[in-house]
Amino acid sequence: MATVFLLTGIQAAGKSTVAQALAERFERSVHLRGDVFRRMVVNGRADMGSADPPPEALRQLRLRYALAASAADAYAGAGFTVVLQDVILGPYLTDMVAAIRTRPCNVAVLAPRPDVVRKRDEARQAARGKVAYKPGDEGVSELDAYLREQTPRIGLWLDTSELSVEQTVEEILARAASVP
């Protein structure tokens, strides 16, 4: 039986690491990074980031989500357990769950405390040079507030501040609607 796990949270919440560890638990699995569709745009990319993004950034965000949902369904249709991770906040989370046709679609929202996200982001920058929060963009506190105040309370919400990657994966699996 095909299953989709949809992992979301703000930048540096641990989505990529948890998604990879979760996908590794299944015999036939795919770790689908929604952000790959954004990075495929060579010219003309309009990034999100500010509290008031331009219309083109929103259009490209919706396109990215539609492509990710379609890819998740295609992999699930081929018999893979799909772990799709992306930053999907606010009403977009409900839209994304509706766009994914495969059921069950297990939603997990990773919501560590902002101070933990800042530390993870700093460690990521030091280790890999990856910068999640750029000057002029919304910061950790603003994005965290948006997550908590504007994102529908669907699926499993986990404060992963004190959880290891393995503990987080175990919690997701224990509460999943169906595990292949």
CATH topology-level name: Rossmann fold
> What is the CATH class designation?
Alpha Beta
User: Which structural category fits the helices and strands?
Assistant: alpha/beta
Q: What is the strand tally?
A: 5
- Strand order across the largest sheet: 2-3-1-4-5
**Largest sheet properties:** 5 strands, parallel
Instruction: Report how far the terminal alpha carbons are from each other.
Output: 6 Å
Global mean pLDDT: 92
Total helical elements: 7
Strand content: 5-15%
Based on the structure given, which CATH architecture is correct?
Answer: 3-Layer(aba) Sandwich
**Overall 3D form:** globular
Order of helices and strands: EHEHHEHEHHEH
Looking at CATH, the homologous superfamily is: P-loop containing nucleotide triphosphate hydrolases
Helix residue percentage:
40-55%
Number of domains: 1
Rg over CA atoms: 16 Å
Unreliable spans are none
Key attributes of the depicted protein:
alpha/beta, 180 residues, five-stranded parallel beta sheet, 13% strand, 5 strands, globular
Give a short overview.
With 180 residues, the chain is an alpha/beta fold. The chain has helices at residues 15-23, 35-39, 55-77, 92-99, 114-128, 140-150, 165-175; strands at 4-8, 29-33, 81-85, 105-110, 156-158.
Topology readout:
Blueprint: E1 4-8, H1 15-23, E2 29-33, H2 35-39, H3 55-77, E3 81-85, H4 92-99, E4 105-110, H5 114-128, H6 140-150, E5 156-158, H7 165-175
Parallel strand pairs: 1-3, 1-4, 2-3, 4-5
Helix pairs in contact: 1-7, 3-4
